[in-house]
């Protein structure tokens, strides 16, 4: 007797669900998302690298696996992967794990490429100071101020820890994540006294080692003993897989970072590893960019007074909940309740117009973008930055940007939620008086 169609369909669905949770399916997803191999691999790569073959400046949008994990649905990553591989039951957590792995590899590849380009520039233009034309003064001033403010926060904590460790005859361990050329660690060490600098063990971690000689030279000049300087090449995606960092687990008095932690799409992973690095009572102090611009390709302004969800997928207004369509997210117009906190709308306007400058277009083009942005807001039309970059194709910037690609950022609420998930205690974020995009965080184990 033939099996009824409904039962055959049910058995097929059960089989697909079982397959979706298997190790075999996990490998298929990893191969397709991370390496572009196997069934669906090519489709997924074209989705994640949609702008790669487009002209400057649109291709600067880069790899879309690097958008915050909270925004994966807004960009259509999860349904795209399921459809490309041909199984609608693949768990979202499996796809998110693969996207996280891809984003970590993408950042590492970009920084290594930047290191190689840096060496070529240095040999071709020895002794010249490389800087960007339009944005250098404003952006570097804000970053310098943010690092100085963070340095003061960190130095105060380091001094307190030195006082406690001195009695036990121990060095105070300070770890800087994403050390770059030392712009976060130097302002911290400079605020210590000469005698205090000799009592600190400084560990700098970065995915690229190209600036390690600069950091070492600078720390030595500040009076940090050579034997107290540790430079580690490691990715944020897997800090404690590095044996040198693993040996520091439970040893760090203070961990800091400046404008680097947004490089990982999943903050919880980094924060949980920071928590493991810290001693009981140890401090974690960092600053980063904060804005909602990467929630989705199309940003829609929510009504005045509406309360927008953390991921922007819905808003609540006059007792009703409105959910966004695929490929869109909402932006709040509500002014910030805390000092120096601007509305999400103001943050989005500032960040996107800053990108026009970062891409080395003129101040006139930056103003033209703001006017376009304001007209879209007034008419209730979505903000799609990719469409605006296409308008700039063919227009000449003062020179091509020295940045590799645009970097995705998170909101301060995303970081607060991730800190809470890590088990650390944290205070209210401190917003910069210089820019609505800069925010400082402080947590303790």
From TrEMBL:
<dbReference type="InterPro" id="IPR041698">
    <property type="entry name" value="Methyltransf_25"/>
</dbReference>
<keyword id="KW-0489">Methyltransferase</keyword>
<feature type="region of interest" description="Disordered">
    <location>
        <begin position="1"/>
        <end position="22"/>
    </location>
</feature>
<feature type="domain" description="Methyltransferase">
    <location>
        <begin position="175"/>
        <end position="282"/>
    </location>
</feature>
<protein>
    <submittedName>
        <fullName>Class I SAM-dependent methyltransferase</fullName>
    </submittedName>
</protein>
<dbReference type="GO" id="GO:0008168">
    <property type="term" value="F:methyltransferase activity"/>
</dbReference>
<dbReference type="InterPro" id="IPR029063">
    <property type="entry name" value="SAM-dependent_MTases_sf"/>
</dbReference>
<dbReference type="Pfam" id="PF13649">
    <property type="entry name" value="Methyltransf_25"/>
</dbReference>
<dbReference type="GO" id="GO:0032259">
    <property type="term" value="P:methylation"/>
</dbReference>
<keyword id="KW-0808">Transferase</keyword>
